[in-house]
Amino acid sequence: xxxxxxxxxxxxxxxxxxxxxxxxxxxxxxxxxxxxxxxxxxxxxxxxxxxxxxxxxxxxxxxxxxxxxxxxxxxxxxxxxxxxxxxxxxxxxxxxxxxxxxxxxxxxxxxxxxxxxxxxxxxxxxxxxxxxxxxxxxxxxxxxxxxxxxxxxxxxxxxxxxxxxxxxxxxxxxxxxxxxxxxxxxxxxxxxxxxxxxxxxxxxxxxxxxxxxxxxxxxxxxxxxxxxxxxxxxxxxxxxxxxxxxxxxxxxxxxxxxxxxxxxxxxxxxxxxxxxxxxxxxxxxxx
Length: 287
What we know:
The chain has helices spanning about 1-15, 65-70, 90-95, 115-120, 205-220, 240, 275, and strands spanning about 30, 35-40, 45-50, 55, 80-85, 110, 125, 130-135, 145, 150-155, 155-165, 170-175, 180-185, 185-190, 195-200, 225-230, 235, 245-250. The chain is an alpha/beta fold. The longest helix has 18 residues, at about 205-220. The strands form 4 sheets. A 7-stranded mixed beta sheet has the order 1-2-3-4-5-6-9, covered by helices on one side. A 6-stranded mixed beta sheet has the order 10-11-12-13-16-17. This is MBL fold metallo-hydrolase.
């Protein structure tokens, strides 16, 4: 499924979203000394390094340049033994689907117990206001199922998993070492702050908006102000910016919300080069 879905998105979604000023992925590079990202067209996957341990956050498309771009960052695919999955859409799990390239066959996946219901076939993923049903995803890796609010460790790395449903029913976000919040597809950053993610791709927009407000309150209650790292629109350390428009939706086809600084066609990654990947830290959203 991942090969077919990846190719469909590369061609069809490039046409659909071209000029909509929606996707603004980071190029491949390091965010800081701990977090690196790889660009796969409109999507980013991330790596968190602490001591001798490197974990991966999301697995992107079935993308044939992944190992190459990881190499730009000095990360060997064979070293990855732990992958946190925010949700099961093809641009977040393609590299670990059964028909993928097999780079991470030995990696253990961490996924929410509700999200796992898509993988078992108990529920089917729907988009375009739930009118279009996607094929079932098949993954053979060993999995550890997570509950909302669960805290666990991978080596010396502390991870809080929080359920933020709406985009999918079981979407998880991960707070790592109380410093980095990997938000997957829960927040979309425009030039003036964060919104609830793209409306046409949600299982429930009302739930997505409500969940984002709950997430904000959880972060405040924990007294943490992490670096907010999104799957498609970069990162910020500005708490107020991240939740600035949490009650509003990113609605690309109504032109109500867009980012003039986003590329015309974010599937064109010609500016994502090895030279740029090694040329200092990446810039945050809104700066």
